[in-house]
Structure formats: structure tokens, C-alpha cells
Design goal:
120 residues; alpha/beta; Rossmann fold; 4 helices
Length: 120
Amino acid sequence: MARITVLVVEDEPLVRMDIADNLEDAGFSVVEAANAAEAIAALERDATIQIIFTDVDMPGSMDGLKLAAAVADRWPPIRIIVTSGHRTFEITDIPDGSVFFSKPYRATEIVNSINQLLTS
């Protein structure tokens, strides 16, 4: 069975590396991006991505909420997990079926959420 590929979008390198390592340890294949532009490029070249895990606050013209909306519109089968340590917003601000985690989060919670999203 093919490994599930998760795209981790996080501008803080240490935070990105930490969650990427935890997801790899849990058996997932991980693609990393530092911003929305890198994430879109990764999605365009890698059709195996099934989950996107994105921070909200990122540099560039598109934050994580706009990225989540773009992914839901352009790649509807991809499941989305959004995280933020600074901003609050309504659940209606993220695409239907998406999940939100505030920082700090536990890697085990993210792994469990990914597994639940894939089975729903």
C-alpha cells in the first residue's frame, strides 16, 4: 500500500521540521513548503499529496486561510488541516470538512486527525 503524502506548509523552519519529522515517524511521506507559493508549486508537481497541513500566518501574498480556500477549490479531494498560534477566526473561515488546531499542538493529535480525515 502506498504511503499517504502530507504537504506541510509552515514558514518557521524549526516548527516545519518538527512536525515533518513527527509525521514521517508516523509513516507518512512529507513534502515541505515555507509559504503558499511553494505549496501551490508542490501541489502542481506532486499528484500524490492527499493532506495539506498549513499555518495561517505566512509571508507572501497568500496566507494559510487563502491557501486552504484555493486548495479546496482547485484540488477538492485534498483534506486540509489549518493551524495558528496567533489568530482566531470562525470555523466558517476554513473550507468545509477542514480541521483547525491552535498552537501549540501535539503531533499525535495531528496524526490522529489525518487518519480520521482519510477515513471520513
